[in-house]
Target: MotA/TolQ/ExbB proton channel family protein
Amino acid sequence: MNPVPFTTLAAAMDFVVGDRNYPLSELFMKGGFIMWPLLLLSIAGVVVLVMCCFSTRASAVLPTKLVEQAESFIRKRDYTGLSILCKNGDSCYARVMLTVANFMLRNPSAQFEEVREIASAEGGRQAGFLSRQISWLSDIGAVAPMLGLLGTVVGMMKTFFEIANGDFSGGKQRIDMAGGVAEALITTAGGLMLGIPAILAYVYFRSRVHKRVGDLEAAVTHSVSVVATQLQKPRAGAAGAFHEEELPKVPVDPTSLRDVRGL
Model:
């Protein structure tokens, strides 16, 4: 593997002041112990970002093919098949309809209002799952600048304690003091560099989740309406079926018959 592109990228990310370059590794070490929690937060942020990318896909929330297959089972009143289909489908819609199918299997005479409440409760749970997941980005975006500010405050306190103890005097010492203040501000810069992208990612995924949840609500409402239509229809053979074997058999007395041949 050619290391030149990586070396070029690392050089481009250096902090340049005048004629001097400050590598990121050097700035990280100068930032103090607060830089380590910021590093852990940055790793967590990347993991959450990848999770949000996968969990908010259209196929992970509302796969079109699964919706069509589910409504086909509903129209046939095959709730066992619907349950098996949704159990094998890893999506928010599948989990909602799995709850509906299992409820219908346990309660064949359920009313539409009950089915609607079950679907609404599970749909709200799935929407809450998506919202909680992206809220982690908001949490990281809020905590990272606070950690950076804490590191700066600690560094400034250390610098001013040294001033109070008389460690800084003369021109060279004042330059050293300015360097200490600059090092203290590294953590604030690090926290902002982590917090701003996290907040921007949260804003993007929030709008994406709102769209996915709206589509999910529309699809579940339509599917539950199909369930309601099927509940209103009588089952085949349950009404209007009149079989000959169900007729009462009345014995006939031959002596009661009148001879009408002469009429």
Summary: The chain has one domain: 20-231. The longest strand covers residues 15-17.
